[in-house]
Amino acid sequence: MKKSLIALTVLGGVATIASAQSNVTLYGRADGGLGKAFGGKAQMTSSYKETSMLGLRGREDLGGGRVAIFNFEQEVDLKTGAGGSWNRAAYVGMGGGFGEFSMGRRTTPQSDTMGVFDLNGTANATSALKNLGLRADGSLGGNRANSQFMYTSPTMSGFQARASVVLKENKTAPAAGAADTRKTSYQLAASYKSGPLNLGIVVASKMAEGSADRTGFALGARYDFGSFIVSGLYTQDESRTTGKGFGLGVAVPLGALTVGAQVARVTSNPSATREGATAIELFANYKLSKRTLLYAGYGGLNKEGKAINGTTGSNTFGVGMVHRF
Q1: Residues 56, 181: Cα–Cα separation, whole Å
Q2: Which of 209, 35, 37, 221 is nearest to 119 (CA)?
Q3: CA pair distance 279, 313, nearest whole angstrom
Q4: What DSSP assignment string belongs to 43-79?
Q5: Whole-prediction pTM value?
Q6: How far, in Å, CA of 182 to CA of 274, rounded?
Q7: Is residue 14 helix, strand or coil?
Q8: Per-residue pLDDT tens for 63-110?
């Protein structure tokens, strides 16, 4: 009993010292349910709508309005309990009145700026844009980047800017004897929010030398009319193989319930058999609380869409629950 009290006292002292020096927060999200993937069979799902994950973030007051920050985050599979490395976030940085600078693996400027234009939170399995390779938060090289140096400006009169760079030396080296086509790549993004209006733009440089690569960009607009929300996005992928396309969506809040529909279409693709690829999404989300919701989602693809997605199935659907902590 005495040993337990001593241990608790020591642990309490360490916790007090740690809290005085910095603020560390454990957070996470759990998404589990029942669903059917494209071409698959109905089974238990993990991360069907939102990725189940566990994270740590912290900040230390450095004085003078400056803070040191860090973030570690990893995915968790609810079906098996397996967790990966810190594959979602692993970075350190500094913030203040000048904005925020960070370095490491983290979300890109596109991810932090453009995700809002997918009205169902860029749902993992059903997002119409994502299922055609035109995802709002990551069509330009993915929604996360390794070895990234990123700056986020403070918000001024509704405007905010983000910029990042990934040096070519930090990208995967080519195989022995193969040509090195890596390029230092950049992303620039800007957003504007005023009341019910959201606007966003992002530009990404070529990631590699070659005829399949080009400057990529995305434009988005969203407006909340109160009784319903509309959103639109147009993107030119940095790879000509993916092509160009757009997405349109509408969401209707009905108290705790929100229902909506979205459609995406590829308008230009080097392969004639993939032009006109179309995806649809239907969704319903019911909030049980600020941190817990029930969801149902459906995603569909036409023939060209299946070719782009690389599946033989034309639809996916799922129901489940998301809890955040």
Answers
A1: 36
A2: 221
A3: 12
A4: EEEESSSS--EEEEEEEEEEETTEEEEEEEEEEB-TT
A5: 0.88
A6: 27
A7: helix
A8: 999 999 999 999 999 999 998 789 999 999 999 999 999 999 999 999
